[in-house]
Amino acid sequence: MIKPKIYTNNYLKIQVVEYETSIDVKWEGKSIDREPGKFISPILVKVLQMASALNKRIIMDFQSMSYMNSSTITPIIKILDRAKKGMTKITIFYRKSLKWQELNFSALEIFRTKDNRLEIKGL
Amino acid sequence: MKKSIEFNIKPDWDEIEKIRNESADFLQSHKLSDDTVHSLSMIISELIENGIKYGNFKMLENKVVVMINIERNTVTIEVLNPVDESAFKHLSRLDKTIQWIRGYQDPFEAYIERIKEVSKKPLNDVESGIGLVRIAYEGKALLDFFVGENNMLNVSVVSNIEGEDRNVS
Predict the structure, then answer these.
(1) pLDDT in tens, B26-69
(2) Number of structural domains, chain B?
(3) pTM of this prediction?
(4) Fold classification of A2-122 (topology level)
(5) Closest to B45 (Cβ–Cβ): which among A69, A73, A75?
(6) Full domain range(s) for residue B121
């Protein structure tokens, strides 16, 4: 494991940890900023580039998120669309027992690929 | 128990979280389930966000007004903010978006369509574009709006509460 990188902004914490075969991106807290993409997008782009260069799977875990405004969902959607067009492998975990997570993340299954390169999993 | 509550908010982004928490407390006092409280609070936040983004706050006394009314089977949320002639583009888009959502029998389909559309936009495009459709889909709600007296834009949302949306004690 490479030393985790922790990014924080207001109530949101994103922890990036690189493992032998994956890069884990753990989301915690609330994302309520006016333009959250300014904070989120550069982190996700960097992770996407790292995963692509090192051939590692990105594991994005949203289970510890308690709230996200719509402007937060947008950069995630854009990253998934770009990943789908490339070769990056991504797994998204969300908490199925939370209705808001189930409704929002299950909708992202449109980005799922048949070969499971992109997968969305409710736990 | 009070059936309705009203907030008058300064157009300050930090106020949104405060009102989201206070309105969640009010909704919880009516024994609504955690999931329902979460979705209604999301609606309130999204509408206040729009109110602050597109409202006219040149006059210091101008505020965003939030009204929540709980009936037996419905919750009505109204968010009002002053607008001026510069809001025409926003009002036109608001009208178009609400009509577009109504064109779908199932708001889930509208949500998926909007996700596909937004996903193609540049990463640095800060426009969310999914707030209203998220309200219809996640909040199971009907949206409407009008511009009333004193150029106050009133965006209203009616959400149905079913049996499972209430906590059984």
Answers:
(1) 999 999 999 999 999 999 999 999 999 999 998 888 999 999 99
(2) 1
(3) 0.94
(4) Transcription Regulator spoIIAA (3.30.750)
(5) A69
(6) 4-165
